Amino acid sequence: MGRDDYWVAISREGELLGGGFFVTSSYVLTSTACLPGLRTREHVDLHTAQGLPLRAMVYELAEDVGLALVSVLPDPDADCSAPQADSAVKGDGWLAPYRPGPQRTVLRGTVDAVVPDRRDGGGRPLCVIELVGDPPSDGGEGYAGGPVERRTEGQDPAVIGILLDPEASGRLSGTGGGTLAAGALSSAFEVFEKLSAEYLVGLLSEGLPVPPAPPAVRADPAPPGRGEPLRKRREKASEVFETGRFMVREMNALAAENPLLARDMRPFYMRLANEVCDEAFRTLRGEPDDD
Hints:
The chain is α+β, with helices and mostly antiparallel strands.
């Protein structure tokens, strides 16, 4: 996807528990199967794809759908941006970049079906993406919690879901063990309030805290942009948020014109909120653009 540091390995006391991936710059989505016996506010250790350690804690468990949200403590050395997200359709190629060890193969294959409302007993409905492995897999033991990317020719790579553990896959697909399945990202956005479109869009209208001022005396000249008065940087940050609000209004109008688009708009709201906040932070700090 042009970058592979959005997924993480989750461990506790040196024991690998499973995978996960950033869905915002502060939260990692994973499977409850990767947090056995853990409760909210208990700490876990994360390692990015590049090996950078991060501290985190269990934020919310949604046992009825087998999903969990992990809150990540900020680290100035970590770039924890969320990946591009999208929905899947039957026939899409897919790839699961997280693997539980260097000797394990990378799972890949084809989307067999997208079933919008599957339930595990009396739990909430989950949109399930049924997957076929190429070559056929034994159910993906140890891969749970990692992202599933769309890898279809002619389309940009994007995360379409979270790989479920074999037991949950079997129950939700109704085909028993040895089945590969993912929970669609749209379901996670519906389950967790912190990932809802309303919450993410609400971030666009909230003020950002002013970062700590740099030391009064610097041995080296300030980087380009940092010499600008704080007032000007605030004005530029306000322009960034106004652009974000304009895009939200246009996206809402598009969804209103075609209600069939409304459900699939959530990944784009998430992506917009992340990019607007990232750009506003860079502006306040006087940092140059990535380009």
